[in-house]
Design a protein that fits this description.
The protein is an all-alpha fold and 146 residues long. The protein is built from seven helices and no strands. It has a domain of 96 residues. α4 packs antiparallel against α5 and α5 packs across α6. The model has no long low-confidence stretch (mean pLDDT 85).
C-alpha cells in the first residue's frame, strides 16, 4: 500500500505540475516564470526568479514527511516521498538534461528522453499553438517520439 501511495503521489504531481505550469506560471505568476523563457541558458544567471517555484512544491513534501514522522503516519510520509521523487525527477529531466544546468551531463540517446527534450523545446520555441501547450514534463503528445 505504501509503495502504491508513493507511485500515485508521484504521477499525481505530473498533473499538478502541468496545471500549475499552465495556469499559474503562464498565468498570474508569469512575472516569476518569464525569465525562464527569455534567453538561452548560457546567458542566464545561475539562479532565475523561476527557480523559486521549487519552494512551492518542496514545502508540502517537507511538511508531510516531518508531520508523518512525528505522528508515525506512514501514509503522510509516502505522499511526501512521492512528491519529493517527482521533484528530483523534474530537476533531473528539466534542469540537468534539457537546460544543461549541470554542464557535465550530455544529452542521452534514449528515445523517451529525446521525446521529453523535443516536447520541452517545442514549449520554449513553439512553431505553432499546439507546441506551446506542452506544460507537463513526463506526459506529452506522441508526435514528439518522431
Amino acid at each position: 500500500m505504501i509503495i502504491l501511495l508513493i507511485i500515485t503521489s508521484f504521477w499525481f504531481m505530473e498533473f499538478v505540475a502541468w496545471s500549475n505550469h499552465k495556469y499559474v506560471m503562464h498565468g498570474f505568476l508569469w512575472s516569476l516564470h518569464k525569465d525562464h523563457h527569455l534567453a538561452d541558458i548560457a546567458s542566464k544567471p545561475v539562479l532565475q526568479k523561476n527557480d523559486f517555484f521549487f519552494l512551492i512544491y518542496a514545502t508540502p513534501a517537507i511538511i508531510l514527511i516531518i508531520w508523518g514522522l512525528s505522528a508515525a503516519n506512514p501514509y503522510m510520509i509516502a505522499i511526501g516521498a512521492g512528491i519529493s521523487l517527482y521533484g528530483m525527477t523534474y530537476f533531473i529531466f528539466h534542469d540537468v538534461v534539457y537546460h544543461q544546468r549541470l554542464p557535465f551531463f550530455s544529452r542521452p540517446s534514449n528515445a523517451y528522453v529525446k521525446a521529453i527534450i523535443k516536447a520541452h523545446q517545442a514549449h520554449h520555441k513553439p512553431k505553432n499553438i499546439k507546441d506551446f501547450n506542452n506544460f507537463g514534463l513526463l506526459i506529452f503528445h506522441r508526435r514528439y517520439f518522431n
